[in-house]
Write a structure and sequence with these properties.
The chain is an alpha/beta fold. The protein folds into three domains: 85 residues, Ubiquitin-like (UB roll); 89 residues, Alpha-Beta Plaits; 352 residues, Fe-only Hydrogenase (Larger Subunit), Chain L, domain 3, CATH 3.40.950.10. The protein contains 20 helices and 20 strands. It has a five-stranded mixed β-sheet, with helices on both faces. A hairpin with a 5-residue loop joins strand 6 and strand 7. The radius of gyration is 25 Å and the shape is globular. It starts with a strand and ends in a 9-residue tail after the last helix. 48% of the residues are buried. About 2% of the residues have low confidence.
Length: 572
């Protein structure tokens, strides 16, 4: 169809909304409640435009042939300003200290663009209501004094993650977004995936932040600081500095970590390889015995939270392996101190993750050995970028450097842990080779790659048929779980990632995590795998050294003491 946008003729297709057609034509229309992963909300009204002489919302109005659209008339701009002023009347005046700042707050950015000043420092006369802050979880905070009732969190949790933690209710004062059944976040069915947090256009939902504490500790040299970087971080961090999604920025990142003052700089890719050795051994043992099948992966703490809260009867089916983050933490407080001749209690472990649920994972009582916590602090990719900026490090122009020895080497299989299907593919590369005694080719398992909700594969090894499934996003898990509950699951091994796309789209990743961005991030991961001389976990010489000199055999007594754990029901 032909339409006219601000007097300029352009072509579009039937079924598009005005917002989509304008985006294709490189014409920006402001939004606050719109999110590309959910249906149009039509709540905030800031996307108002003039179409064929009528004022309509661009997000939910379909285009028509020969439609004449004006996006920034004087009247439209004034109406947008009025909407922003009304929102600010019920909004706190704390932009300088708000966690959503640093260019990530859509409301603040629009106020700058439309020259709508925030109130002065006195909030007298405003409509701001004192709201309780929900601080009950280790990972995120809910501050409803900043809520603008866009209802995006409600839609993301209900329609994408299928959890329905939030709901919109009517009160005497009007609409209000609450936790279902009047519960706190901790008591609710929330799994700390953080997808609502990323979708929130303001600071009503944000991750707990320890950056000031970490910055002070690094400057004061209070401990021996060890840091691990998750596979995803290497391909998403650059976006915070204007670089392309998927670009491998490992070298610059490692230089930045040295400038920040870390003593040992290592890769979670290493412990991902260790995870495959442990989890692969466990899977083969279960298949041999025919017990506790199918086996679920245990790498994603959002999935573990889901299992404990929503289907605890399946906990025995989950691998007893700790996640790569926690395995690395355990080794950094035991194996690494022996190599460096220091005490485990003097090591302070920081993990840089694309995940909100990782902040909760480190607080689990079982994630410790001999009273020493596996990991002391988790910061997200967004927080890491803030830390770099706080210290005035010019990231884009940094020289490149390498990981430290012993715990810094990872295979290509470990790198693809960060995308949906990656853990399964890494496991299969090792398990199939172990069963056959041969190096399998090709190494790529294309059928479990991509963004489909549930992906399946059948691998024939001699007389054994191994059936696997990959659940891409917790919203797609119900039919897979129902099969296990009913005793008719056809699978031996199931990977679950709570966030669609995997860790590259985690709750702690850069905000712009739409499908096209996630695809670029995944492409970067797979390219890194192809370029790696080590593409199977068991080929990693540092992993071999770990088992030869410290752990013994995979699945042995020492491995179980350090690298395995247990879970318990939290069903309300």
């Amino acid at each position: 169809m032909d339409i006219y946008i601000n007097g300029k003729r352009t072509q579009t297709i039937l079924g598009q909304t005005i917002l989509e057609a304008c985006a294709d034509a490189q014409v920006t229309i402001p939004t606050l409640c719109h999110h590309r992963d959910i249906a149009p909300q039509g709540v905030c009204g800031i996307c108002i435009v003039e179409a064929d002489g009528k004022e309509v919302k661009a997000c939910d109005t379909p285009v028509k042939d020969e439609m004449k659209i004006f996006t920034h008339t004087e009247l439209i701009v004034e109406k947008r300003k009025k909407i922003l002023k009304e929102i600010l009347e019920g909004h706190p005046n704390d932009c300088l200290v708000c966690e959503k700042g640093n260019g990530n707050c859509d409301l603040q950015n629009l106020c700058y663009e439309y020259e709508v000043p925030n109130r002065n420092k006195s909030s007298e006369g405003s409509k701001v209501q004192a709201e309780g802050i929900d601080n009950t979880t280790f990972g995120m905070v809910r501050d409803m004094s900043k809520c603008i009732l866009c209802q995006t969190c409600v839609a993301i949790c209900r329609d994408v993650q299928k959890l329905s933690v939030y709901e919109t209710i009517m009160t005497d004062a009007g609409k209000k977004i609450v936790i279902r059944d009047g519960k706190s976040l901790d008591e609710s069915g929330c799994i700390a995936c953080g997808q609502c947090l990323k979708a929130c256009p303001v600071g009503a939902l944000y991750e707990k932040n320890d950056l000031k504490k970490l910055n002070r500790m690094l400057r004061n040299r209070e401990k021996h600081f060890v840091v691990q970087t998750a596979p995803a971080i290497k391909h998403i961090l650059g976006e915070e500095f204007g670089m392309e999604p998927g670009e491998d920025i490992s070298g610059k990142m490692l230089t930045a970590l040295r400038l920040l003052g870390f003593n040992g700089i290592f890769s979670t890719d290493f412990s991902a390889d260790v995870t495959i050795m442990e989890e692969g051994t466990e899977l083969l043992d279960r298949i041999k015995k025919g017990e506790k099948l199918p086996m679920f992966t245990s790498c994603c703490p959002g999935w573990i939270n889901y299992a404990e809260k929503h289907c605890p009867e399946l906990l025995d089916n989950i691998s007893s392996c700790k996640s790569p983050q926690q395995m690395f933490g355990a080794l950094s407080k035991s194996y690494y101190p022996e190599l460096e001749e220091i005490k485990g209690k003097d090591v302070y472990g920081v993990a840089i993750m694309p995940c909100i649920a990782k902040k909760e994972e480190i607080e689990r009582p079982a994630m410790a050995n001999d009273g020493i916590r596996d990991v002391d602090m988790v910061i997200t990719a967004r927080e890491f970028a803030k830390l770099i900026k706080m210290n005035h490090i010019d990231f884009r122009h940094l020289p490149e450097s390498d990981y430290d020895e012993f715990l810094g080497l990872g295979s290509g299989a470990a790198r693809i842990f960060a995308t949906s299907g990656g853990v399964m593919e890494a496991a299969l590369r090792t398990v199939v080779s172990t069963l056959t005694g041969e190096v399998i080719k090709p190494l790529e398992f294309q059928e479990i790659r991509g963004f489909k909700g549930v992906k399946e594969a059948v691998i024939n090894v001699d007389d054994l048929e191994i059936r696997v499934a990959v659940v891409n996003g917790i919203g797609n898990i119900k039919p897979v779980i129902d099969q296990v509950r009913n005793g008719n699951s056809p699978y031996h091994f199931i990977e679950v990632m709570a966030c669609a796309g995997g860790c590259i789209n985690g709750g702690g990743a850069p905000i712009a995590s739409h499908r096209d961005v996630s695809e670029k991030r995944a492409k970067g991961l797979y390219s890194s795998d192809l370029d790696n001389g080590l593409r199977r976990s068991y080929e990693n010489p540092e992993v071999t050294r770990l088992y030869d000199n410290y752990l013994g055999a995979p699945g042995g007594a020492k491995s179980h003491h350090l690298l395995h754990t247990h879970y318990g029901s939290r069903k309300q």
